[in-house]
Specification:
The complex is a heterotetramer of chains A (about 100), B (about 575), C (about 500) and D (about 500).
Chain A lengths: L1 H4 L19 H22 L14 H24 E2 L12
Helix pairs in contact in A: 2-3
Chain C lengths: L5 H21 L4 H25 L5 E8 L2 E6 L2 H27 L5 H20 L3 H19 L5 H33 L16 H14 L11 H4 L5 H10 L1 H17 L1 H6 L3 H21 L3 H22 L2 H32 L15 H15 L7 H13 L3 H27 L14 H19 L1 H8 L12
Antiparallel strand pairs in C: 1-2
Chain D lengths: L1 H5 L4 H5 L1 H18 L3 H26 L5 E4 L10 E4 L3 H26 L2 H23 L3 H20 L7 H31 L4 H8 L6 H17 L8 H8 L2 H26 L5 H27 L4 H22 L2 H32 L10 H4 L1 H15 L5 H15 L3 H27 L4 H6 L6 H19 L2 H17 L3
Helix pairs in contact in D: 3-4, 3-6, 4-5, 4-6, 5-6, 5-12, 5-15, 5-21, 6-7, 6-12, 7-8, 8-10, 8-11, 10-12, 11-12, 11-14, 12-15, 12-22, 13-14, 13-19, 14-15, 14-19, 15-17, 15-18, 15-21, 15-22, 17-19, 17-21, 18-19, 18-21
Classes of the chains: A mainly alpha (about 100), B mainly alpha (about 575), C mainly alpha (about 500), D mainly alpha (about 500).
């Protein structure tokens, strides 16, 4: 069987995603994403947009919006999680009887 | 004959298929039935020549309009039928007769509710969705799923009876049970709104969803995600379009689940919160009212059925194959389930509203409506919520499940197999639709209740959406690199359900205990009083008591004398 | 010359079960023949009642016994009574089948006495259904109490005797202490105790007197189990399950609420009840009963106790309907008699089936049993859904009409009680379905011996009935509408 | 039918019917005394009661429709001679006496053989016949002093009969003695009252007295007489609180005596009360109507509750029923106290019905006693299983006592409550309801013991083999009558109504 020759449990089509496991993938990915984001934001200066909402027409507005939303969400999650997290079987889990 | 069939609601074949499936033990035949039901319903949908109200029945003094085919209902009806078919496909490998039946009856109830022309018929199917769907949760066969299901059923039935009560009040005032715009000015409107609010998972009444969807079976969660909330959105759009309060609720509803979606360890829980956030946008759009906003809400609902269904399907596949969807135990699954990973990415793209996906076409319409109305702050909040959706769903789901490095002590990827063919087919079809309707968005827009004259693919719109997505992706990559992304870990995040699962439960227990004690002590007091009274009676009346003692005859004469005196006195005063 | 007539059919409704009882005694030595006698009587009675239902339009009447001037035992057929008779006789067939399965499955003793008392109880229920006046109804009401007493005490141990004694004491006590004076007062005020369309007392009694009488009736008809005179019902749970089914679905409690309904409709009439100063308070008591009994049911682990309190709660729906006193609410009350009968008998027969197979009585012991007894638990689920009032099951209709009645009267909070009740019903009935089917399956040895077919099939039949009744409500409403002065079809 | 029945008798006999009624048992008593053994004496007693019963029917039919028979005893015309006066009021009572004494005597043979020493049996029957004579005399006579005489004849015979129970239980002697003392007090009061009346009116003939009393409404002497008569007769009738002699007398007397006395003696005393209150005194006299409310109805209500409570606490079955009798008498008094035609009808109706119930109940207790020698409630346990037929009869009569429909007690209650409502006495209705519940309580105790407890093992061994059918038959006749007269209540209701009409019409205006 051909399966034996491959790494155990690996799907034949897994090759599609093999690149994600490449050692450099993470660093390269980060650089690519940051560059892409900057490039897309910079496009606004090259070709101004119009928008129904006045302030949204400002160059790079949407990039800032996305950045802000994501950073705030991630950073705010820390204190919120600290205050609201309980152990897994807080409500009794599968053995308890509520 | 043809006309007869044309007059029947498409819910009928679906529900009947469900009943038949329940009675069919043969796997092959049953699966054929589950696929045939939605197909037949689709045929009936296409057979309708013109909008109108069909299938009107008079029962017990009430007029039931079972099949109202108009601009709004036909869209939802079609989407529900498609979802029912996709679900049947997804469940093709499932061996549980009960789940097959429950899913179809539930889907049929959803279709029936959408086509209901009056509030009573709506109520019938409204409750049926509750009753049928609970089995999809219970089918997980764990105590926690049982409890979650029971709570789910209770609150769903509450929604139903509230709907009935509100409908009675409304019908009394309006003189008709017809389900048209209700509004909050109508007596009973508020009650009906609460009923809808429960099913739409408004904040504070949303926990039935975030609690029970993760507890449902893999197949069950997929089915559940498609109908209940979208039915509520339909009902809101029809009954309460343009109610301002919905805008505020919608904004809260869109923002508040972001945090929970982000930190939830169970990826299906993430999806549930994410779904709630999406619903918030729809609710706000309905609250805004107007052709474009309602159209946008409808388009989002369609999109949501497709991509949320797709994501639940993929996570269901992960759960079925890997045995868990806890982010803290997953990672690296691309190796075992590359196709599922691909479809997940398609779903992610759709929920991120990447151009050329259905999410883009839907969200654009809804958000632009706010911008056009000049509601800048609302627009900004909803934009932020959708930006956050990129993070907590679009990135988190595929990354945590498939592309994050495998966890130590987590799932052993080498033992996991790709999802079975039926699941893959369903996921593939859903993914295809997500992309197809994104490209050929005209097909979607044509179905909307109001003809939309809007081109989502303007330069400004495309570039701005891409900016958002790229910025979020970059921010994620950066913060994850810096270790500032809250890594998933097991744990229970408290939500409003704490109020009843802990506080309410505790109060009820305490109350019961106190009542018990009160009764006991009252019993004691009553008993003591009773004993004393009994002793008193006994002292007086019993054989050894005062009245029964063998009184000496002499004493008896005194009685006689007393009585004589009494009669004399009476006689004296009488005359 | 026609030998048969409607009047004779009225008498036959009383005589057939009694003859069945005689047959039971005569054939006591041969169990199969004895049960055949019961079943034959049940089927004949059902046929007879079906004939009566068809003839109810003409309101035939017959005087059975002329006791003394002005006092008659008489029958008169009218839709409400015909409906009750139909429910009782129809369910008797099912219950008889089930009794055979249960009594044999559990090897109960004194089966001949059991079947005999059963026939007498059914005859009494027929008498109550067909009575033409309060006096006759009272006579059969007491006969029903006395004839079911040996059934409740059937087991004969100390607990059964105590339960039966409480059963008898409360039912006889309330009927003699409150109901009888009320009936005599009606006779005194109106000069007769006939059931009259529109209300015998309408125009004859002042609202105040009517208010007092209403209280006497509401609590005097102890079988309606309005709180706080309900304790007999949970105590009567010591009886074998077919008896519980009889008590809760076919005869006793239904006779109680039926009497309530008939008194409300034909003695007071809606207008007088509405005018009576106490009807509002009684409606509140009924609503309180509905909610409180449900809460208590929630705390009971014993399945039959839970169902008993559920019955207390569900019965008060009818009382509530009477006290709301609008045609639509009364119609709701009447429907509740039918719908609850089918739902609750299913639940009880399932409880008995579970007991027969596993000897388990507590809900907490029944986890996963549904996997071993799927039919029984599925029937239970349907019965529960009907009792809750979910659509596509018969129990939905009375809730709808009662809600309409409560809201028509502007009593929003009473409608709230109905809502609360539905929720509580879910909370105490559905766990059995959820736990039964979806908890981990217990080892197969839990089943000591499989339940007899006759203990499984009847609840399935009644469950299907509860489903069908949802769709068959139209004819029933049409049949009842004239009684309440509603346009055909029940529209208010 | 009535004519056909009356045509059986020669006219001369019919004319002498009242005298025959009294004479037959009197002569029978004399004959029984000299007979050697119990059985011949019993035959005589049976024959005499049969005659009484037959002639009771004759008299009833003769007075049907409101006729009044005035029979001059010994040919001396009233008001100087002694008059026997039969009307609608006392004819039913005579019927009751006749029928129940007949049933009682049938019941007596095995019961007396069991309880009374053989050599005393002939005297026992003689005493019984004397008692019967007295009771018939009291009921028939139209002369006040003559009534006193007959009352004492019956009373003294009763004391002896009660004392005969000493063979079973020595306490019968004290019971009898107490009864004697109190009975004598009652008789004395009564005769004092009659004396006052004679003083005021100058006549002893009651009809005559009534005619003269019409003008003497506010005469103090008459009022005093009234008080003495009420108290004296009330004592005889065991009106609460003058009932204390009754429980002991009933519990220790021989079974047959209790059954007979419970269904007849107090009833006759009650009849005399009606006779005096309605026929001799005028109902319209203020002091009489005030006494209705404040004495008779009030004591009736108090009695029916207090005695019923007391009954609930008894441990001895016969004593329980004895207290129940006091309570039930309360119903009759209440009916009387209501004072309307409906009220008196209800009172008399209950008088008749109560005789049926208590007769059956005490007879059943007699049957239990002869088989197992049991008396206390505790000893009744399990009898439902060992003696189902007798227990059933007992139960029917017991339920009748409570007033369950399909028994005659229900009819009583129905008429009584109707009468009370008619008068607007809601409190009386409430009292009846309470008392019924109490009755349910004590009857429930008996029935629970009989049907629900399991029999003690010794009971199965100590049992005599067969219960004489002569004991069962009369018991069953009464038990069935309890049911029969529910479904066909017209005859007794008509009797009661006739009596009430006679009572109300009796007082000449």
């Amino acid at each position: 069987m051909s399966g034996r020759r491959r790494e155990a449990g690996t799907h034949p089509l897994a090759a599609l995603w093999a690149w994600t496991a490449a050692p450099a993938a993470r660093a390269v990915g980060l650089i690519v994403l940051v560059v892409a984001a900057l490039a897309l934001a910079g496009a606004d200066w090259l070709r101004p947009r119009e928008d129904y909402v006045g302030f949204a027409a400002a160059p790079g507005f949407y990039a800032l919006l996305g950045l802000g939303a994501a950073v705030i969400a991630m950073l705010a999650a820390w204190p919120l999680r600290r205050s609201l997290e309980r152990r897994e079987d807080y409500y009794g889990g599968d053995d308890g009887d509520e | 004959m043809n006309e007869m069939i044309a007059h029947l609601t498409p819910a009928l074949p679906v529900i009947l298929a469900g009943l038949l499936a329940a009675a069919t033990p043969w796997y092959g035949l049953r699966k054929a039935i589950t696929l045939a039901g939605p197909l037949l319903a689709a045929a009936m949908w296409f057979a309708v020549a013109a909008p109108g109200t069909y299938g009107v029945i008079e029962v017990a003094g009430h007029t039931l309009e079972t099949f109202r085919f108009d601009a709004t209902s036909r869209l939802w009806g079609l989407v529900f039928i498609i979802a029912a078919f996709l679900n049947a496909l997804y469940g093709l490998h499932g061996r549980s007769r009960l789940q097959d039946a429950a899913a179809l009856i539930y889907a049929g109830a959803g279709v029936g509710a959408v086509f209901a022309g009056d509030l009573l018929t709506l109520f019938f199917f409204w409750e049926l969705t509750a009753l049928a769907s609970v089995f999809l949760i219970w089918a997980s066969a764990t105590p926690s799923a049982y409890r979650a299901g029971l709570r789910y059923l209770v609150i769903q039935v509450l929604s139903g009876v509230l709907l009935l009560t509100g409908a009675v009040i409304h019908a009394d005032a309006a003189g008709s049970w017809r389900f048209d715009a209700i509004g909050l000015d109508s007596p009973g409107g508020a009650v009906i709104l609460i009923a809808f609010a429960i099913k739409a998972a408004f904040p504070l009444v949303h926990n039935w969803m975030t609690e029970s969807y993760p507890k449902a079976t893999p197949f069950g969660a997929v089915v559940l995600s498609a109908f209940t909330t979208k039915l509520a959105i339909y009902a809101l759009a029809r009954g309460f379009a343009g109610e301002d309060i919905l805008i505020q609720i919608g904004v809260v509803m869109a923002l508040f689940p972001v945090f929970f979606a982000l930190v939830a360890d169970d990826l299906r829980k993430t999806l549930a919160y994410s779904l709630m956030s999406q619903l918030g946008v729809m609710v706000a759009a309905i609250g805004l009212g107007g052709q474009m906003a309602i159209g946008g809400a409808a388009a989002m609902a369609v999109a949501s059925v497709l991509y949320k269904g797709l994501l639940f399907m993929t996570m269901g596949a992960v759960l079925a194959q890997a045995g868990t969807v806890q982010a803290s135990r997953l990672g690296g699954l691309w190796r075992a389930m590359p196709l599922t990973a691909l479809f997940t990415l398609a779903g992610s793209a759709a929920i991120m509203a990447v151009p050329l996906t259905v999410g883009f076409a839907g969200k654009a319409l809804a958000l632009t409506a706010f911008a056009r109305e000049g509601m800048d702050l609302v627009w900004l909040a909803l934009m932020a919520a959708s930006a956050a959706a990129v993070l907590h769903t679009g990135i988190k789901i595929p990354y945590m499940a498939f592309f994050a490095p495998p966890r130590e002590g987590g799932v052993d990827v080498s033992k996991v197999k790709e999802a079975p063919a039926g699941m893959l087919m369903a996921m593939g079809l859903a993914a295809f639709l997500c992309v197809y309707l994104g490209i050929n968005y005209g097909a979607l827009y044509d179905l909307l209740p109001y003809r939309a004259t809007y081109d989502p693919f303007s330069y400004g719109h495309v570039i701005s959406q891409l900016q958002v997505i790229a910025a979020v992706l970059a921010a994620f990559a950066l913060l994850a690199r810096l270790g500032l992304y809250p890594r998933p870990r097991p744990g229970e995040i408290l939500d409003v359900d704490w109020l009843y699962r802990r506080l309410g439960y505790g109060v009820a227990r305490w109350g019961w205990l106190m009542t018990d004690r009160l009764w006991a002590s009252m019993d004691n007091v009553v008993m003591r009083l009773g004993k004393r009274a009994a002793a008193r009676l006994h002292e007086t009346f019993s054989p050894i008591g005062t009245l029964s003692r063998d009184i000496p005859s002499g004493a008896l004469t005194i009685w006689t004398g007393a009585l004589l005196a009494l009669v004399l006195i009476v006689a004296y005063f009488a005359s | 010359m026609t030998v048969w007539s409607v009047e004779l059919a009225l008498v036959a409704a009383l005589v057939i079960p009694l003859l069945g009882g005689a047959g039971v005694v005569a054939l006591g030595r041969h169990p199969n023949l004895r049960e055949a006698a019961t079943l034959t009587a049940a089927v004949l009675l059902a046929i007879n009642v079906a004939y009566l239902v068809g003839a109810a339009e003409a309101r035939p009447e017959i005087t059975l016994v002329h006791i003394a001037p002005g006092l008659d035992l008489a029958f008169r057929l009218e839709p409400l009574g015909a409906l009750f008779a139909a429910v009782a006789s129809g369910l008797w067939i099912v219950n008889s089948l089930y009794s055979i399965g249960y009594m044999r499955g559990n090897e109960e003793k004194n089966q001949t006495r059991f079947y005999l008392c059963f026939t007498i109880a059914i005859a009494s229920a027929m008498g109550i259904a067909l009575s033409a006046n309060l006096l006759s109804m009272f006579v059969f009401y007491e006969a029903l109490t006395l004839s079911t007493y040996p059934l409740v005490a059937h087991k004969g141990d100390a607990r059964a005797r105590r339960g039966a004694a409480i059963y008898l004491a409360i039912l006889l006590g309330t009927s003699i202490g409150l109901l009888l004076p009320a009936i005599i007062a009606v006779q005194f005020i109106a000069g007769s105790t006939e059931f009259v369309a529109g209300g015998l007392l309408a125009g004859a009694a002042s609202p105040l007197a009517a208010g007092v009488l209403l209280v006497l009736f509401a609590f005097g008809i102890g079988k309606a189990a309005l709180m706080p005179i309900h304790p007999w019902l949970p105590h009567a749970m010591v009886a074998p399950t077919p008896v519980s089914a009889l008590l809760h679905a076919v005869a006793v409690v239904k006779a109680g609420v039926f009497a309530m309904l008939k008194v409300g409709t034909y003695i007071f009439g809606p207008d007088l009840i509405a005018a009576a100063p106490t009807s509002g308070a009684l409606a509140w008591i009924a609503a309180l009963s509905i909610v409180a009994a449900s809460v208590i049911a929630l705390t009971k682990d014993n399945l039959k106790a839970r169902l008993a309190f559920s019955t207390v709660s569900q019965l008060s729906y009818v009382t509530l309907g009477v006290m709301l006193a609008s045609p639509i609410a009364l119609l709701g009350g009447a429907l509740q008699i039918v719908m609850h009968a089918w739902g609750k008998i299913t639940l009880f027969m399932c409880a008995g089936g579970i007991y027969t197979a596993t000897k388990k009585t507590e809900v907490s012991q029944m986890r996963g049993l549904g996997r071993l007894m799927p039919w029984t638990f599925a029937a239970f689920g349907i019965g529960a859904a009907s009792v809750i009032g979910l659509p596509f099951f018969g129990g939905m209709w009375p809730k709808l009409f009662l809600t309409e009645g409560a809201l028509d009267a502007g009593k929003l909070i009473l409608a709230g009680a109905l809502i609360a009740s539905s929720i509580l019903n879910v909370a105490y009935l559905m766990p059995l379905v959820g736990r039964g089917f979806f908890d981990r399956a217990p080892p197969a040895k839990e089943i000591r011996k499989p339940a007899p077919v006759l203990a499984v099939l009847p609840p399935v039949i009644t469950a299907i009935g509860a489903l069908l009744l949802f769709f068959l409500v139209g004819p029933i409403v049409d049949f009842l509408s004239p009684v309440f002065g509603l346009e055909g079809g029940g529209a208010p | 039918m009535i004519e056909a029945f009356l045509a059986l008798f020669p006219a001369a006999v019919l004319a002498q019917a009242p005298a025959i009624m009294v004479a037959a048992p009197m002569l029978g008593a004399a004959l029984a005394t000299v007979l050697p053994g119990g059985r011949p004496a019993w035959v005589v007693a049976l024959f005499c009661s049969l005659i009484t019963a037959v002639f009771a029917f004759v008299l009833l039919f003769q007075t049907w429709g409101g006729e009044v028979i005035s029979y001059a005893m010994g040919g001396w015309a009233p008001p100087l001679g002694i008059e026997f006066r039969i009307d609608g009021l006392n004819a039913p009572v005579l019927l009751l006496l006749g029928v129940l004494s007949l049933l009682g005597v049938i019941f007596a043979l095995p019961s007396v053989a069991d309880e009374i020493a053989p050599r005393k049996q002939s005297l026992f029957y003689a005493t019984f016949l004397v008692c019967l004579t007295g009771l018939i005399g009291v009921t028939s006579t139209g002369d006040a002093f003559n009534m006193f005489v007959f009352l004492e004849i019956s009373s003294i015979a009763t004391y002896i009969l009660v004392a005969m129970g000493a063979e079973q239980d020595r306490r019968a002697l004290t019971a009898s003695f107490n009864y004697l003392v109190l009975g004598t007090i009652g008789a004395t009061f009564f005769v004092i009252g009659v004396g006052f009346l004679y003083m005021a009116t100058g006549t002893l003939n009651m009809h005559d007295m009534a005619l003269r009393l019409v003008e003497l409404d506010d005469n103090r002497v008459v009022q005093v007489a009234f008080a003495f008569v009420i108290v004296g007769l009330g004592l005889k009738a065991a009106m609460f609180p003058l009932h204390v002699w009754l429980p002991n007398a009933y519990s220790f007397a021989p079974s047959f005596v209790t059954a007979f006395l419970a269904s007849t003696a107090t009833k006759v005393a009650f009849y005399t009360l009606i006779r005096f209150i309605f026929d001799v005194f005028s109902v319209e006299a203020p002091f009489v109507s005030a006494a209705f409310v404040w004495v008779i109805a009030a004591l009736g209500v108090i009695g029916m509750i207090a005695a019923s409570v007391q009954a609930n606490f008894q441990t001895d079955a016969r004593r329980l029923l004895a207290f129940s009798s006091v309570g039930q008498l309360g119903y009759m008094l209440l009916g009387l106290g209501i004072g309307t035609a409906a009220g008196v009808t209800a009172g008399v109706l209950h008088l008749l019905n109560h005789a049926l119930m208590k007769g059956a109940l005490f007879m059943a207790l007699g049957v239990f006693a002869i088989r197992y020698g049991v008396r206390s409630i505790n000893d009744l346990r399990g009898l439902g299983r060992t003696m189902p037929a007798t227990a059933s009869a007992f139960s029917v009569a017991g339920l009748s006592l409570v007033g369950i429909p399909m028994t005659v007690g229900f009819v009583s209650k129905w008429y009584l409550v109707s009468a009370a409502l008619d008068r607007g006495w809601w409190w009386a209705v409430a009292a009846i309801a309470v008392s019924s519940l109490l009755a349910l309580g004590y009857v429930g105790r008996l029935l629970a013991s009989i049907w629900l407890q399991s029999p003690p093992e010794r009971a199965l061994m100590a049992a005599k083999d067969r219960i004489p059918v002569m004991m069962l038959a009369p018991m069953w006749v009464l038990a069935i009558a309890n049911v029969w007269f529910f479904f066909d209540a017209t005859p007794i209701v008509e009797l009661a109504r006739g009596a009430a009409e006679a009572a109300l019409a009796g007082a000449p205006r």
